[in-house]
Every structure is written in C-alpha cells, then in structure tokens.
C-alpha cells in the first residue's frame, strides 16, 4: 500500500513538471528557435539551389568588376570604368549628404514651427498648426514627386536659363554656380577648421567650469567663432591663397564646369526637410509644454525678456524630453532617403538596384543596403544616447 502511494506521488510530480511556468517557457522558446532555424535553412537552401540552376554567382567578388554605367551626381571622382565598389561608395556619399543636411535643416525648421505653435500671435500659431496638420498627413513619396515636378516645371530650359548673378545659372538642369578649383591646401584648411572646433569646444568647457567656480562669465562663443574663421584663413593665406574659380558654361544642351545643385537633390532635400520638420515641431511643442509654467512665471518675475526666457530657461529643460523622440526622427530621415529612387536621385538604393540588375546578385546588393543602414542608424542612436545622458539630470 505504501509503495502504491509513493509511485502515485512520483507520477503526479512528473506530470506537474510541465506545469512549471519556467520550464514551459524554456520549452516553447526552444521549439520556436528550432522552427526559425528550420525555416531559415529551407529559405537559404532554396535560394542557393535556384541560383545554381540559373547560373548566378554567389559572393561579393562582383564588387571588383568594372561598373560600366555613369552616375548623374558624383560628389567624389567616378567614371564608368571604376569598379562596382566605387559606385556603391558614390551612393553612400550621396545618402549621407542628403541625410546630414536634412537632419540639420529639419531640426531648425521644426524648432521654429514648434515654438510658433505656442505663439501668442493668433495668425502665427494657426499657420504653424496648419503646416503641421497638412504636411504630416501627406505621404512622403507624394511630396517628393510634387517637389520634383514643381522644380522641373517652373525652371526654364538651359538655353533660357536665368542668370541673376554673373556666373550663376538657374535652369531645369539645376543651379550652376562657380566652384573653386581643387588644391591640396584645402585639405589643410579643413583640418584647421576641425582643430578650431576642438579648441573652441575645450574653451567653452573651461568657460563653464570657470563660471561655476567664480561666477564670472567668459564670451567663449565669440572666441570660438574667431578661431573657426581665423585659423583656416591663416592656413589658406600661408598656402598661397589659391582662389581660381571654374565658371559654368553652356555647351550644347547643358552646362559644364562649376558646381551644380541638381533638381533631384533639391527635391529630395526639400521633401525630407519639410516632412520631418512637421514631426519635430510637435516634439518641440510637447517638450516645451512639459516644462512647468512656474519656470516662465519666475523668469517674468525676474524681468527676463520672453526670448531670453525661451532660449535660456525653457528650451534647455525641454531638451530632456525632446531628445529621445528626436532621435527617432533623425533615424527616419536617414531611412527615408531611400525613397530618392522615385525621383531619380542617385543614392545608395538607386545605384544598388542598377548594380543588382546588371549582375543578377540582388541578394548581395540588398545585404549591403541592410549593413549600411544598420551602421548609420546605430551610429545616430549611440551619438544621441550619449548626448541624452549628458543632458539628463544627475542627483547629488
């Protein structure tokens, strides 16, 4: 009788092992992992088999082959005889160019619109609210097509190009302006500007510490600005002050020489800036409203002007609420730059699609897209998180 009870107890304990939430969770996770591995193995093996049947090469060796196609907008030197890897690099530089400028301009416009929505002026507040409500509810692709169409339709043909300033031409091929001929000294001028920025940052940090310790302010902004202008100027003068300009000239149906702001780049930059600024404006407005109204009242009691109150008191506190969602908008600008393919701007995805169609190695091209966008997004996230930690309140 005792043996039967013991056996029954053992059976009950074994049966109740699966009812343990921890063990059951581990079991389900293992099953899910096996299913994911199985599906991944099936897809990869099927892909490899189909590529072997069609005679499509595997790997990234195609990056060393000659590209054989021209790119309309090349911020770095490129010819059709260069390899595919160089073409990818041109696309990456174009993506970074429009993304970085888009982030800067969208931030400036978004802050202005966000502050305007809180203006006591009825007309300014309503115009800002109308801009936000209108732009946020129109898809970005539609806005890009609209900007591209407006720029191409409104601008004249190259032979009838507007010439508002000598050497500057505006046509449906873009805006052509004189450019300074390349010279090795400009590399040292850029290095001098970066050194001036580092020195200026060090002076600003020292000024803050000095003011905290002694209460005496130091005009670090003007000193930093003088360094940023003066140091590169000294290097440029020491290098012989080269200033030979290349003037655009009409040859056939287009201009040659100088520097060109293409309609595709202008439309892409306008679309990203206007669209993303509408979201940033709401983030800025929400961050300002999150600051206690008592801060504004205290500033008024001290006799501070409204502009000084906003710049020195409200916005620095609002930044703690603004930075995290602002990071998402910066990531969106970078990822939305891939929509440039619809208006013909030669960024990473557009050039990669051409390479994939020529080589048949679409999977490798897409994997390069994924790696590049992942690296850029992680870099932005890490940088913004570091800045967010610097701006956060620290308990003593």
From TrEMBL:
It is found in: Cell inner membrane; Cell membrane. It is a multi-pass membrane protein. Its main location: membrane. Residues 92-384 form the ABC transmembrane type-1 domain. Keywords: Amino-acid transport, Cell membrane, Membrane, Transmembrane, Transmembrane helix, Transport. The chain crosses the membrane at residues 26-44, 87-113, 185-207, 219-245, 265-284, 366-387. InterPro entries: AA_ABC_transptr_permease_3TM (IPR010065), ArtM/GltK/GlnP/TcyL/YhdX-like (IPR043429), MetI-like (IPR000515), MetI-like_sf (IPR035906). It comes from the Bacteria. It holds the Pfam family BPD_transp_1. The keyword Kinase does not apply. PANTHER family: AMINO-ACID ABC TRANSPORTER PERMEASE PROTEIN YHDX-RELATED, MEMBRANE COMPONENT OF AMINO ACID ABC TRANSPORTER. Belongs to the binding-protein-dependent transport system permease family. HisMQ subfamily. This is General L-amino acid transport system permease protein.
